[in-house]
Structures are given as structure tokens and as C-alpha cells.
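FAQ: What does the model actually see?

It sees only this:
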Amino acid sequence: MDRDISPPPAKRRKFAAQRASRIQTSPLPAPEALPPIDSNVLRIFSWNINGIAPFLQKPITSFFQTSNKKAQGAKDAIPPASLRGFLQRHGWPAMLFLQEVKVATKDTKTQNDVKAAVKSRSPSEMTSGHNGPTYEAHFTLPNDPYNARGLRGNGKVYGVCSILRSDLRKDFDVNIRTVDWDQEGRISVVEVTSTSRKMAIYNIYAVNGTENPYRDPTTGAIRGTRHDRKLEFHRLLMQECMDLEKAGWEVLLAGDMNVAPDARDGYPKLRTFPQQHIVNRADFHEKLLEGKGLNGVDVWRQMHAEEKRYTYFSRGREWGTSCDRVDYFIAGRKAWDDGHIKACGILDSEAERGPSDHVPIWADVELERNDKVEIGA
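And it is asked to produce this:
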């Protein structure tokens, strides 16, 4: 096969008019019904959004609607490309992890716009007078001058954003950090501690292996290929998680792993060419899944057996004709064996994909609160 897993765009995307005009402007259909959760369960969503720009601007087609149509639709509509709208549609989850946000470290305006967007009331909130909870947004963005320059050298590449419901801090001790071994903006760690347990939840945008050079982040000297960096990323992530587990933490990884685990996870077939992709997949299993390393659990596969569903859908091909499951949750063995991962799912529809080339995934995690409160209160 000649396609990549989560490939970088071959040409610069034009967000302003061309891309915005393709975004669905009518209200989305009702979201997939998810199982109810109790006050000790945190619902976590993860989504590679392939650039946050469409979520911060009005689609160009909206400027051609009549004022009456705008007013009529504003009562119930939740804009499809809207961070606040996504949170509302899906019942105000505890966390929303975004990958590939494509925001430059120096671009504080966009970062502030995102922070405002997750707090701004949606049209239906304003109409009904029933406001949802507030959220906070935390970015991990690239600061590697050699490996994360972006297509125009502006640093708008990679990057993750962890969006947390503000009331989590009432019930848990919450700390957000990154790691010192990655400068490409690929990892955000949310550490959640209660009186009885502590869990480290990782928001991950894993390295996509290619033959392109990987350079020393300090000197710029070539240190191999992006395939080599991918293997090193696996090793460093494995060691990070194993050290945490030894210190008494439970571990949960979420995000775009850039590896389809096995033949059930690629359509029409799993990518096996060039040979290095087979090597990368085997290394991922050995270090993070069911091997001698972390020995983690692919939550979706464990809960859904032989079911074939996917998370990456190429926008260059008809829906469902070229897809892979590369976004998922990996639970550390303690979190899994103790039964703390309750459910998970994939929102695999064109509507939920929105302007991205990935669809959202979710998982429910049991974590006792310090104080018993209703979710969203």
C-alpha cells in the first residue's frame, strides 16, 4: 500500500475560505447515545482534529445566510466545528484531549481564542438560560527548531491540547505537565489524585514513522530517520509509564498512536509496506502492548473483541474505503486489572469527523472523588 497512517498534508491547507466552505454548516444529527455514568466515573474524549483553525472561525457560508435564517437556526443549533458545541453535544465530558492542533508556541492569540472558545456559551445555552460547566485548556506545543518547523517554518505543526472541566479541581488534586524528552508538542500528562488513588492520563500524538531525517533538537545534526525517532518515542514513553507504575500510579494513554495494532485495524488491509512499518508495529507491541515492557491493554480491542471499526478516514477517498484504527486508549495493567476502565467507544461517522480526518473516541474511567457531587454541577 502507498498510503501513510495519519499522513502529513502534501500541500498547505488553506483554512480561510477553501477549507471553511467545506465544513458542514447545518446542525449535526443527534449524537450517538452513550451509556450513563455515575459520579465516580470520568468520561474522556480524544480526537485528532488535524488543525484547530476551523473550530475558531465561522464557516464562510454562514455569511451568506439571511438574518432571519440565522436567527431561526440559532435557537437550537450547535455549530459542527465548535469546541464548546462538541462538549455540549456529548454531555459535558470531564476531559477532551485534542491532537495535531497546529498552533505555534508563540501564537498566544490562537491559544487565548481556544481558551475563550471552551468557555463561551453556545447559542442553545444562551437561548435556554441553562449554562454548562466551564472548561480550561492546556497546550503542549512544539519548541524544536529542527524537527517541528511546519510547512512554512512557522511552527504550526503537531501540538496537543488538554481541555478539562473546571470542577474537577473541586474533587481531585489535578496537575498538568509534559515530559522533558519530547520537544515536538506530542505529550500532555494530566495527573489526577484522589484520597485513595492516583492516575496519570496521557494525551498523545505519537510520531509518524517516515524516511525523513530526524535531527538533534539542540544541534540540528541528523540522528537517523523519523522511523528511528518513532522507536525511540516508544521506548521513552514505555519507561515513563513503567516508572510511574512503580511509584504507585495507574496509567492510561489516549490519543493518536500512529500504529494500527493488527489486521483487524486496517481497511482494505493493514499497511505492511515498506518493511519498516512492520518493524514499528512489532516494536509498539513489545514496548507498550502485551510485551515485556508496559504490558498495556488496548481497551477497545479487549471490550469489542473482533469488531472492525476505524478512527482515521482519508479525506482524499470516499468515506469508508481507506481507514485505520490508530486512535485508542491503552490502560496500564493495574488500571485494567482493577476494573477501573468501564467502557469505551468510537464515534465513526462523517458528521462526527467534521473538518478533521479522524473521528473522536471516548472512554469511561472510574476514579473516586474526594467529595460526592453530581457531574456537571
